[in-house]
Design goal:
Blueprint: E1 5-6, H1 33-41, H2 60-70, H3 74-80, H4 94-102, H5 122-132, H6 147-154, H7 159-166, H8 173-184, H9 195-202, H10 208-213, H11 219-225, E2 235-236, E3 239-241, H12 245-257, E4 262-266, H13 274-293, E5 299-306, E6 310-317, H14 321-345, H15 352-366, E7 368-369, H16 371-376, H17 386-392, E8 394-395, H18 397-410, E9 414-424, E10 427-438, E11 441-445, E12 453-454, E13 466-468, H19 470-473, E14 477-478, H20 494-497, E15 501-502, H21 505-517, E16 523-527, H22 532-544, E17 550-556, E18 561-568
Parallel strand pairs: 1-12, 3-4, 7-8, 15-16
Antiparallel strand pairs: 2-3, 4-6, 5-6, 9-10, 9-14, 10-11, 11-13, 16-18, 17-18
Helix pairs in contact: 1-8, 1-14, 2-5, 3-4, 5-6, 6-7, 12-13, 14-17, 14-18, 15-18, 17-18
């Protein structure tokens, strides 16, 4: 929970600008807007420079692109770059239509035209989606003219939805979103898995973390979450019947969700020893409820007594039932905010580094470290949460790191939160930060440490702790290295990425003099052989050798970053 305060020789005043949500305008222009946001996050629906355009009639080529995404074949099609005979396909869709043509998914409207700009009909798009669900009209699974009826039979549409679509020849992009979203939750032909399960588990084109964050749970998570509210265990005079660890888990999960303070479990017919299973079952149930509600650490204490017929568990919660509901609502608000942040900046083909940089800058520029409460020892629960960081705009390191992970999950980045310690005033204190995977390599990223306050209380933005290796943090932080990926690369470190690294004092001198000759107002470099004892005097000598009347500078001794600012010539 440490806040880094930078000591500077002359305090530099830094003007921060709050980052707007660039790119796609997320405005309420249709009833399926929220589904469109989720589909965009998952890479299944793209907006235009005009937004989602949910009230516009889509074209055939837009429908084709949606089919390729639902099939999980978009990236493969782009990689293969297959040809087609059609002359009316826009360049952005060439590879997609080529893949469809070569794999028998389309024959076009003629031998030389695909009909790209033609308006898409409901029948055409539902046919596309049925094919994505493994139904084959060529093998008589359905006939084109009966596609809407087949969609009802398959569980893709309700009867009223099909009737509404039959009443008009064309559909809107709003309808495409609704049908596609429904398809994600629809089971494939003769299968127990849904289309989303396939895209996540088999095709691996959608990360599980993103589907989980959006509450679109995949098949291997269903057992943990889907009956948390509906489970109805059988009750006897001894308590709820648990025949095995699965029953035990479901009873605890359901009871925790309802904030039951005393849970009686009938273990008369239990297969095994309930007391031996208790710890693992308890931890699973608590984790499942946290995942569903977004409320963490909601149990403060527990105890149980057991005999041959009954196990009685007594729970003390950290929150009242009312507070529990409020915190659940806060988690929903935080997810809503996070979804719209990501939908606002994410673009097709955006590099992982670009995503991470935007997430980092958004958090730092829109969150204030809860320093006053940290100093006073009165940090409220909200400051440890995503809600505190993204909605209230005030958090400590745990809130920063959780928000960083949620935004990363929704941006399809591999990210985790590290629970460790950091040094402050000569002692170790609890601290949280992130490890993120960029271009196949892992790095430490600490948005809280990059959001320091100066001695005058000014908020500033830094990149000192943006994508560091393990060795860069060893003198400052400590953590259980066995629990986390090894970080041994500097390739995506902010200073390496931007050519701001010098390896020696000679190179530092040359680089600074070149910058001064160019009359630059600011210079920031990471010095690999930085030495606190000899550096300050060396810097003064360099600056004084140039035509400089005044300057400010700060040094991060831990990572060797030197910032020279407010240079006056």
């Amino acid at each position: 929970m440490i806040k880094r305060v930078w000591c500077v020789i002359v305090i530099t005043c830094v003007l921060l600008m709050s980052f707007p949500i660039h790119g796609l305008a997320v405005t309420s222009d249709g009833s399926n807007l929220e589904k469109a946001v989720d589909m965009k996050i998952l890479g299944l629906f793209n907006g235009t420079d005009k937004g989602f355009e949910l009230e516009r009639i889509p074209t055939r080529v837009e429908g084709a692109a949606m089919l390729m995404r639902l099939l999980g074949k978009e990236q493969e099609a782009k990689r293969l770059g297959l040809s087609h005979p059609f002359t009316d396909v826009p360049a952005w869709a060439d590879s997609l239509v080529g893949y469809m043509y070569r794999n028998g998914l389309t024959t076009g409207t003629s031998s030389t035209t695909f009909g790209s700009s033609q308006q898409l009909t409901a029948m055409q798009y539902v046919t596309f989606v049925l094919r994505a669900l493994a139904y084959d009209d060529k093998n008589n699974d359905f006939k084109y003219e009966n596609a809407l009826d087949k969609a009802v039979e398959a569980g893709l549409l309700t009867s009223s939805e099909a009737s509404s679509l039959k009443s008009g020849s064309n559909i809107l992009r709003n309808d495409i979103v609704g049908i596609s979203y429904s398809a994600l939750k629809t089971k494939l032909k003769n299968s127990a898995i849904t289309l989303l399960d396939k895209l996540v588990s088999q095709d691996k084109v959608i990360p599980k973390t993103a589907a989980t964050a959006l509450k679109l749970y995949t098949s291997d998570l269903q057992a943990e979450y889907d009956n948390v509210t509906s489970y109805d265990p059988v009750l006897t005079e001894n308590g709820y019947i648990a025949r095995n660890s699965t029953d035990f888990f479901n009873i605890l999960k359901h009871s925790f969700y309802l904030n039951a303070t005393q849970i009686n479990i009938d273990v008369t017919s239990y297969n095994g020893v309930a007391t031996e299973d208790f710890k693992a079952v308890y931890q699973r149930a608590a984790a499942a409820v946290s995942a569903v509600t977004g409320v963490e650490n909601f149990i403060s204490s527990w105890k149980y007594v057991a005999n041959k017929s009954t196990l009685t568990l007594t729970i003390e919660y950290r929150f009242t039932k009312t507070d529990f509901q409020i915190i659940k609502q806060h988690a929903e608000e935080a997810l809503y905010k996070a979804r719209h942040i990501v939908a606002g900046f994410i673009k097709p083909g955006m590099a992982d580094y670009e995503k991470e940089l935007y997430i980092h800058d958004y958090i730092v520029n829109n969150t204030k470290y809860d320093y006053e409460n940290y100093i006073a020892g009165t940090v409220p629960d909200n400051s440890f949460t995503v809600y505190g960081c993204l909605v209230q705009g005030k958090a400590v390191c745990h809130g920063y790191s959780k928000a960083f992970k949620l935004l990363s999950d929704l941006s399809l980045l591999d990210c985790t939160v590290i629970e460790g310690e950091s040094q402050a005033s000569g002692k170790w204190e609890a601290h949280a930060w992130n490890i993120v995977r960029i271009a196949g390599k892992y790095y430490h990223a600490d948005s809280a440490f990059n959001d320091p306050i100066s001695e005058e209380g000014e908020d500033v933005i830094k990149y000192h702790y943006f994508n560091l290796a393990d060795k860069d943090l060893n003198s400052l932080n400590r953590w259980d290295v066995s629990k986390y990926p090894v970080c041994n690369s500097s390739e995506s470190n902010y200073y390496y990425k931007n050519g701001l690294v010098v390896s020696s004092m000679d190179e530092f001198e040359t680089t600074v003099k070149d910058a001064l000759n160019q009359r630059k107002a600011e210079i920031e470099l990471r010095v690999l052989d930085y030495s606190k004892d000899r550096f300050s005097q060396f810097l003064d000598t360099i600056i004084k050798s140039a035509d400089v009347s005044s300057f400010n500078h700060s040094v991060n001794d831990h990572v060797g970053v030197v910032s020279i600012t407010n240079i006056k010539y």
